Amino acid sequence: MMTFEGLDENFKFIVYEVENQARSTQRFMDAPSRKRYAKITSRDDYIDNLKTIIENKCYSRIHADRSLDKRALNKIRAIQVICVNLEKIADYFVNIVKQMQYLDDQSFVQRYDYTEVFEIMLSRLEAILDAYHDEDMSKALYICKAEPMLDDVYKVRFDRVMNEMGMGRDAQSLVTVLFIFRYFERVGDALLNIGEAVIFSLLGERIKIEQFEALQQTLTKSGFSDSFSDIDFSAIWGTRSGCRIGKVEPREAELTAEEKKQGSIYKEGNLEKIRKERESIQRWKQLFPHLVADIYGFHEDADKGSMLVEFLNGCTLDEVILSGDDELVRNALFILENTVLETWSTTMVRLPVKTNYIRQIQSRLEGVLQTHPEFWRDPKSLGPSEVRSTEALLSACADIEDELEAPFSVFIHGDFNINNVVYNHEAQQIHYIDLYRSRDFDYVQDASVFLVSNFRVPLFDSDHRKRINSVIRQFYGFILEFAQRHEDPTVQARLAFALARSFYTSTRFELNFKFAKEMYNRSMFLLEKIHQYRGGDWELFSLPEDVLYY
Prior knowledge:
This protein has helices at 7-30, 34-64, 70-99, 115-125, 128-133, 137-144, 146-165, 171-203, 209-221, 257-261, 271-287, 317-323, 326-347, 357-363, 365-371, 390-401, 443-455, 462-485, 491-506, 513-532; strands at residues 231-238, 244-250, 264-270, 295-301, 304-310, 315-316, 380-382, 385-387, 410-412, 421-424, 429-432, 439-441. The protein is an alpha+beta fold and 550 residues long. Helix 1 runs antiparallel to helix 2 (34-64) and helix 14 (357-363) runs antiparallel to helix 16.
């Protein structure tokens, strides 16, 4: 058990004080009196002061004690979160006793049986110290479960009160009862935060209870039988698709370097997206067994899904491009181009396919304009000259795109950013990750996403931009060569549509306004060029290559 001198004592005091407030509140509701009311309201100031003292000690300890390891830091941070929520619970009890004055008859609330509520709350408050100090995951989960239980209690009382209000009697008392049980329900929210803080102190990672339960179910289904205290769960990244990704591995210190390379990636998120990713991985696995990760476990729960997949060794391509030496970058691009060539050639279906690049822009406009409302142009005119609005330009270009189609389809990655490609130098192999958008479509989509994901790297010194532009130039040449080899004469026209899409939609992830405006301007330039070319021979359309380089 890890202890912190001075801090532990204050922590115990605040837990005990809030427990006492719960008991005092129950006694007050059973038999209201001025003495009991004064006791509850006066102790609230003491709890507020305790919370402030604990917070100050937590911050002071974190900043002053450089010897603290990550686990100790997590334990201190958990104390701070727990104490903030305990102080909230104490406030809710004060609010409850204050509400009692609005009852016409103070025994009125006793008709609604709050004994169950106090049993739930007190049993969880009494479990906090043991859960924290004994590092007991089951008790942490027990604390968390108060939230749905108190939600259910509130729902039952709410329905009853609504029904009784319809009878037209005791309106003020009924509203007061509703407020009281609403505060009980909010105690459940605070207890959930406390339980999750204990889980954080054990796993070293912020994870919601539903995410933890999904992880638990997924690990169990995949055959992991060890105690959860032996698991190291560390976040790798949070994806822009809203999924949560983490690495899961045994915590044993004596693992060899090779064993430490192993482990699993846990991914949790929207059920539809997780299902789609599983299906995509399975299809990629059938076609190219070594290109994607193995799936070790899959779990569904309501609208959430979770997977446990193989951890792929290596570096993402953006790390290679930005940090590797020239030889490493050349080698990685050589392996990448060969991999892309094989996947596109193998999955090619010689049937025309319609594209929807402009529709993709339109579907993402809300996100773009939320970040950069300036990227929406109203119509303007100067004498006889007119500048179309963004809406009109997109609509016109969408109609133009209907005239075009790709001569064949391939199975695309679907989100071919450089951070979704892993390069393993030792194995001389490329791996694909984050595959829920994979589908049979125009290869130009993957091409444009790859090119713009290089362009939008927010580094502007000459050395880095020279390296990035070199990668863009080489891959653009690879695309044109592939198109020529497979008789695709409209590749540059479709790439203009796709690049306009990628530049425009990428602005929603870039808060540097000047850089985001560069991407927006390039998108507008391409859309205007497309519009001006309407009626021309798309096989003769020439993409202005300079648009690719910053």
